[in-house]
Amino acid sequence: MEWSWIPQNWTAIWQYTLDNALLGLIPPVIGLLISVPAGIACVLWGWLYPPVLSLSSAIYALPSLALFVVLIDYTGLGNLTVIIPLALFSLCILIPTVVDGLRSVPDSVRQAATAMGFTQVRRLVQVELPLAVPVIIAGMRVAVVSSISLASVGQLIGVSSLGYFFIDGFQRDFPTEIYVGLALTIALALVCDLILVTLRAVLTPWSRGRQRDSSRAVAAVAVGTEA
Amino acid sequence: MSFLQFAWDWLKSSSQWSGPDGIPIRVLQHLGYTALSVLIAAVIALPIGLLIGHYRRGGFAAVNVANVWRAIPTLGLLILMVVLLGFSALTWLIPLVVLAIPPILVNTYEGVAGVDEDLKDAARGMGMTQWQVLWKVELPVAIPLIMLGLRTSAIFVVATATIAAEIGLGGLGRYIIDGLASNNYGEVAGGAVVIVVLALAVQVIFVGLRRLVVPTGLREQARASR
Fold it and tell me: What is the model's pTM?
């Protein structure tokens, strides 16, 4: 480990960390924007869910590198080639999460909302969706951490991320660079994870202190989708 | 020419299907790496998951550690191993095992911790020891989740073993890495298609395996609750 390498290369380190952060955050956000309406649709029309679930667990099985390579033909060697597959993976994590979250709302709550005159769609959006936030954020935690980690594979096709330090360190046989890349990837994931945990506490003040629930939710997502 | 056209032209050439660089050998190598990695990960993660699930202690920590654990970039770990260890079996085994551990651990824990308390009470009431409760009640009931964990791990490893070609390992990643290096787009495309098919096949194998090992009683229950 050559510590002096770090201050000497500070600008490059900062730049690659930023690139990696963007590649790690944009895909889950796209995934979230699509999976909330898609999840609501799956709850409204139950027959839609089993095929969607099978499809998403099939997509989740695809190797990222293979997908990047497939996309080069259509989107070139730009960020989009990495963002699209990672957004797909996020979608595969988030759709089941949104559906599970919406379905985990207690029946009594649903009945109360109906009795107050909520229509089905309004109830889904105004009552069930907010109550599903802890579960959805649990899904986002998994999606963000995975995307941050997978973004480095994009470096193999030349898309800039912390993966640069792995490849460069390998070619120059210089472990310091690899340590820095590894440490920063994990640190980046930790920071984003903490932000999401904080966000959950802010968004759902009623669930404070119910850590057990949310850890179960993370576990449920971490286990993957049940087909 | 489109991607699939390239892939097809490469795949239909008979030279791809024989010899030490042929697709059958590469598929076997790939499956070999996957099986060994998942097996070792299971030997490590299953007992830990069973124990923390049985005693219901440390679960919160385990789940959060597992979530951060998945942030470890396999490519980076792989390259670090090459630089530190040179090229040996451990070089690729360590990163792939590290990758395979979290899903097995978390699933096993969740499966066992989620077993109905009444069920365990009944088992203890029948005079079962702690060990018997774990072995004869909790494990069978948790099997569907445990299988899901093994499946998730296997799929992660199949997909990720691809990048191990970057450091000179065999398997199907060779086609993508070598093709990219020599600008042979047909090889890249064909290799990608074979990996995708293999990943889906592993998925199907596990769905079948699940049918075999899940106790009949649980399947009946699942059907009844549907």
Answer: 0.84
